[in-house]
From TrEMBL:
Keywords: Membrane, Transmembrane, Transmembrane helix. This is Uncharacterized protein. The chain crosses the membrane at residues 80-99, 106-127, 133-153. InterPro entries: DUF347. Pfam families: DUF347.
Amino acid sequence: MSKTIPPQQPKTNSAFPNPSLSPTNYLPAQSNAVQSGQLALQALKKVPEITVYFWIIKLLTTAMGEVTSDFLVNHLAPEIAVGLGLIGFVVALVLQFVVRRYVPWIYWLAAAMVAVFGTMAADVLHVGLGVPYIVSSVLFLVALVVIFAVWYLSEKTLSIHSIYTRRRELFYWAAVMATFALGTE
C-alpha cells in the first residue's frame, strides 16, 4: 500500500512570508551593476591568475630562456644572437601591449622572450663588459625598488589583479624584467 506524501511548503521567515522576498534571495540592482563592472575589469586584465600552473609554466619558460640564450650565443656570432634576442623581445612586448586583454600565448611568448633576452643581457654585462655579479645584482635590486616605488606612488597599488591600464602594464613588465635580471645573477 502506497502512501501519498503531501508536498511540503517552503519554510519562511515570519517577517517575509514570500520566500522570493527574503533578504537572502534579494540582490539589489546596484549589486548586479557592480558584478558587471567586475566582469568587465576581469576581461580587461592582461595577466594570468597566479596558480600552481602559472608557476610551472613560469619555471619552464625561465629554463627555456636560459637554454635558448646559451644555444644561440654558442651557435651564432654573439652580436647576431643578441640582436635576434632583442628583436624577439621587442616583437613579443609589442604584441602584448597591442592586445586589449589577456591572451595566453602572447603573454607567455613575452615572458619567454624576457627570459631569452634577459639572459643575453646579463651575459653581456658579465662576460662582455666584465661587470662583477655583486655590482649588477645591486644595480638590478635598486632598479626593482625604484620600479615598485614609482609604481605604488603613481597607482596607489602594486596588485597584479589590477593590470588593466597601459601604465600599470608598463610597470608590471618593467618589474618582470628587473626581477628576471636579478634572478639571473
